[in-house]
Write a structure and sequence with these properties.
Helix 1 (7-38) packs across helix 5 (102-115), helix 5 (102-115) packs antiparallel against helix 10 (208-221) and helix 9 (191-205) packs antiparallel against helix 11. This protein has 241 residues and is an all-alpha fold. The radius of gyration is 24 Å and the shape is elongated. It has eleven helices and no strands.
Length: 241
């Protein structure tokens, strides 16, 4: 009114304010869509609504606490130490965009619920500790168990090899031998002990929550859907058992 701004400046400021209102309304719409689809009981509705409306800083703290609980203090001093687990932690960090879709909000809510699952956190912690112990046993960088499972079980699954067959037994023998070499010093050298430890590790890897987290992470971050190795891991679990 005092002509301190030009009409163009006023129009630009109004446009910016409208853009902000639009972003708020889109987020509110996404939140309501997530609540409508995911919540069924009053308690679930409250939880979904709370998780969906967390600020960026609050989301960061929630995920930060989760990842610290998984990787903190393992071998290289934790996720802040710049070691190999720091890179893994960064790759597992969801970043909800400023204008998320309903699907991204829904994925974030489910992912946040997984992050708050003490059992899931303990599962991942156990996998990380086992990997660190096995790597320390060799003193050399080697492909992990997941790589061996993909390389050996993948062709068996594709060829329709039954887990209890003689052909599967040959694959298992190679897998046990490779696992024994990759964790030398961390597991007793007896074949039975190595196979038992392998079965335990595969069982943890087969937990569907692990792959579900990666699927949700891809949706939240707008990444391509991750390749699933559930069939290969499941085959290895049954073949080794």
């Amino acid at each position: 009114m005092e002509r301190e701004l030009t009409p163009a400046d006023v129009a630009a400021a109004q446009a910016e304010a409208i853009d902000l209102q639009i972003r708020v309304l889109r987020l509110r719409r996404a939140v309501l869509g997530a609540v409508a689809r995911l919540g069924s009981t009053p308690e679930e509705l409250t939880l979904v609504h709370r998780l969906a409306r967390l600020t960026e800083d609050e989301r960061g703290r929630l995920i930060g606490e989760f990842l610290t609980g998984v990787f903190g203090g393992i071998e290289d001093g934790g996720i802040g130490g710049g070691g190999r687990f720091a890179a893994v932690a960064r790759s597992l960090t969801p970043e909800l965009p400023e204008e998320p879709s309903v699907e991204q909000v829904e994925a974030w809510v489910e992912l946040a619920q997984l992050a708050g699952d003490a059992g899931f956190r303990a599962l991942l912690r156990g996998l990380a500790e086992a990997e660190a112990a096995e790597a320390a046993g060799t003193g050399l960088p080697r492909p992990g168990l997941a790589v061996a499972v993909r390389e050996l079980a993948g062709p068996a699954v594709a060829a329709g090899v039954e887990p209890g067959s003689a052909e599967a037994a040959a694959v298992v023998a190679v897998l046990v031998e490779r696992y024994g070499r990759c964790c030398a010093g961390a597991v007793p050298g007896e074949a039975g002990a190595v196979r038992d430890r392998l079965a335990e590790r595969l069982g943890a890897m087969a937990d569907p929550r692990r792959e579900r987290y990666l699927e949700l992470l891809a949706v939240v971050n707008g990444w391509a859907a991750p390749e699933s190795w559930a069939a290969e891991v499941d085959w290895a679990v049954r073949a080794v058992a």
